[in-house]
Amino acid sequence: MFDVNEVVGELQGLREEGYLSDALLRRAVRSIFSSEERFDWVGIYLLRSEENVLWLHNYLGDPTPHATIPVGEGVCGMAVANNENINVPDVTQNDNYLSCSPKVKSEMVVLIRGNDQIFGQIDIDSHQDAAFTDEDLAALEEVAEKLAEQMVQELTL
Ligand code: SME
User: Fold this and answer.
1) CATH class of 4-155
2) Among residues 63, 75, 101, 122, which one has the fewest Cβ atoms lying within 10 Å of its Cβ?
């Protein structure tokens, strides 16, 4: 399990040094990706609410054909439409699933939310079946919360 206190501490450190969300979003992806072998693809999508579309901000892992995903489509778009985090233990059993790679077996999406709005989401794919646990969810929620804290702050810049 990745050390959530370390990752959140790193992100807070960047904030205190004056870095903006762009740097935090990249650091979060890097830290999460390198923390666990079972995390084969890690990315952050940002919500463009005017267009109701998710845009891929940055990722590590194989390139994906899904650089943009309309809200309501895919696991990613459904998470936004339903305003809920999603753990998909078996992607073949999910009707909404948009495939990035045939190697992917399971996926987790955790929303970045603050100030009563959805800023985006952390999306993780694994080549292992049912790779994601409740512990992962709780840790990723803490990371998402730290990212949201910065994004809320930037609303008033
Ligand atoms: N599987 C996602 C698409 C994004 S890729 O995993 C990078 C979905 O169903 O929305």
Assistant:
1) alpha beta
2) 63
Nearest atom (ligand 1) to Cα of 94: 9
Is 74 a pocket residue for ligand 1 (Cβ < 6 Å)? yes
Where do the structural domains in the chain lie, given as residue ranges? 4-155
Amino acid at 78: M
Task: Please name the residue whose Cα sits nearest to atom 6 of ligand 1.
Answer: 100
Strand order in the sheet with 53-60: 68-70, 53-60, 41-48, 117-126, 106-114, 86-88
C-alpha 24: how far from its chain's center? Answer: 12
CB neighbours (10 Å) of residue 80? 25
- Local confidence band at 24 (pLDDT 50, 70, 90 cut-offs): very high
Mutate to test the pocket of ligand 1, among 41, 42, 75, 80 (most ligand atoms within 8 A of CB): 75
Please report the pLDDT score of residue 2 as a whole number.
Answer: 79
